[in-house]
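Rotation project, supervised by the postdoc (A.L.). Task for the rotation student: set up a whole-complex structure prediction and record inputs and outputs verbatim in this book. Inputs entered:
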Amino acid sequence: MEGEAESRDEVKPNVAVKETNGDIIGDNGVGKLGSVEAPDFLGKKNVRNCSLAMPGSGLNTTSHAPSQLTIFYGGSVCVFDAIPVEKVQEIMLIASTAAAANSADMKNAATDCATTSPVLTRSPSLQSTATALASPQAPVYPLQRTSLCKLQAELPIARRHSLQRFFEKRRDRLVNRNPYPNPSTPKMADDTKANLSAATSLESGCFEKSPVPQEDLQPKVPTHVA
Amino acid sequence: MEENDNKMNKTMTSPVGMSDVVLGCVMPYIHDPKDRDAVSLVCRRWYELDALTRKHITIALCYTTSPDRLRRRFQHLESLKLKGKPRAAMFNLIPEDWGGYVTPWVNEIAENFNCLKSLHFRRMIVKDSDLEVLARSRGKVLQVLKLDKCSGFSTDGLLHVGRSCRQLKTLFLEESLIVEKDGQWLHELAVNNSVMETLNFYMTDLVKVSFEDLELIARNCRNLASVKISDCEILDLVGFFPAAAVLEEFCGGSFNEQPDRYYAVSFPPKLCRLGLTYMGKNEMPIVFPFASLLKKLDLLYALLDTEDHCLLIQRCPNLEVLETRNVIGDRGLEVLARSCKRLKRLRIERGADEQGMEDEEGVVSQRGLMALAQGCLELEYLAVYVSDITNASLEYIGTYSKNLSDFRLVLLDREERITDLPLDNGVRALLRGCEKLRRFALYLRPGGLTDVGLSYIGQYSPNVRWMLLGYVGESDAGLLEFSKGCPSLQKLEMRGCCFSEHALAVTVMQLTSLRYLWVQGYRASQSGRDLLAMARPFWNIELIPARRVVMNDQVGEAVVVEHPAHILAYYSLAGPRTDFPETVIPLDPLVAA
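Outputs recorded:
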């Protein structure tokens, strides 16, 4: 992680995400962005319960170390060095989605009937996240669940190494065979052999022919064991 | 104990009135380790006789004792199994250099264990030099060598084995991380060995081996019964299969050509345990001619969808062992329940999460479990990743699966809503119904099991020796109730729990049989010293502090993964380790933290 410092001279992203009473307020003091655009939600939207509402004052530069992310949560502080700005945006998106999901769940549970608020999908567009929560509801703060959810996010179900390896190899096989997959192809359960160009490659893991000339075909008679 | 050294007194009687001669005849028939343990505690004479006649020892964690302690007690040992890294290492959770080096053991074996014929190292670090020492000192007598999920060695080390271990009947390398220089090791094996019965380098990435050497082994070794290899084109094995006349088990291979070319492949007549890597729906029919003979089917690395599973499984009425991914689906489980009445072991692993890589039908839920319980009454082992679950399905298992000795359930975290949580009542019913249960794993999510449910686990698992608990309970109170039960629990693994260090320490002190604890994800104390409440003689406590690891995620991108801290604690007669890597820290109560 430390060796991955991606500080570019023209970009000094610095995000401090602070939590107050369950609200997550993002405070994005971004330096000169260069070619990176500030995402919409950072600047303009005020989203209930996961508000990354900015003081609309625009961009502030601070004197923190470049690409450092500080998160205050539940009484503890985490500092991460060398986070690229894209990752920070992803993190903030996840936070806003998670908090929005919590809020939506609480709403549904409270009203106990299908509400008109749209169900939040896994990767909502920024726009829908904002409009979905336009109408304020009495916020319920599921603090315990949030902390356990956080625990779950930190500790995803671990994957078995042998299967991980298999999935990697399977992916490589498909890429080798079908480097330009048709996006409308639904299942890839059976390998599409149609695009088999190169027959076998090292990646598909076939045995190579042995370079060593074959010796006698009979096993050497084992020397007598005393 | 006083012993009469009088040479005229040839038959000694032990306190229970049995002569040594009789005991010496009876003792070799006692195999179960727990029985042997009991026998050795009767009196010194019985302890000595046990030590002389014990054939096999399993050391569940290599750091619980030392090589010379083993030698002092069991110098005539014929078979040894040693385990190193925690089980979590199979899930990439343990630093590679954690430990579990075989070197001190190999050196002791080379010097002193003259009767040792069978060696099994599991999750340990093996060096080429270790293999060289072993081959040189024990090569003439070694019959079984298993390097099971090991790492640290290369094919150069295997060269020594191939050259010197000519009596080797079993060479097992499955899932080991081996640095591959060439395929010469297999060639050495092929020209030097004629007694091989089990050859396994499945799930290694060895690709430079030659199928001609495989053929040679098949021709020379008339008792070759089990062969599991890495990815080798199946069509290249057209010489191997006919040569392996008595082959019963084959796994591995690879399908890279047009499906219809495989219809000409003929398999050995006794083949009844099979697993073909990358087998898809178009190649599957090559198995049909002998599917009714199959007792074991490994579909973990096949490319079948739910429908394919149904088509294949219904042709396997004699199936006893099935391993596959959750692409089998509830529908596949229903077919299994109808068709495979002799099923004893079922393992359903988690498929890939990537869109389009697995079947939409490929989820397992309460529906499949209920069908399975009712249909497969002989089930002894069930490990399953489910996407949904109910109490009723667990009750079914408790009602029908009377032979179940090993049950593992993981609730996947993709679905937000689960039909029926918490699972308190279902878990209780399962534990009460499955009286033979020895191993139990339950991995849920917050809300999956209340404190009451956790207390049920403590109350109703009298014979369970190993448990993995993930995201169970709600508070320390639940854990403390749990720890009042589980009278047989020797090894406890916990993950993602909300329990405090203090509660963990109290739990350890209360569980009467506990000798090994592993925890990842817990509520750390402010000082980090609450764990010391479990400090006591012969109890080693180790921490792996939180780490950040760069890994490749599912789509091959580099991500930084946070690894929360681990606690590992175990009884040891050998004192604290002396070979800690940087990532592991011993907790020593004598040293001010």
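Student's summary: DSSP finds 18 helices and 25 strands in chain B.
Supervisor addendum: Chain B touches chain A through 84 residues (CB under 8 Å).
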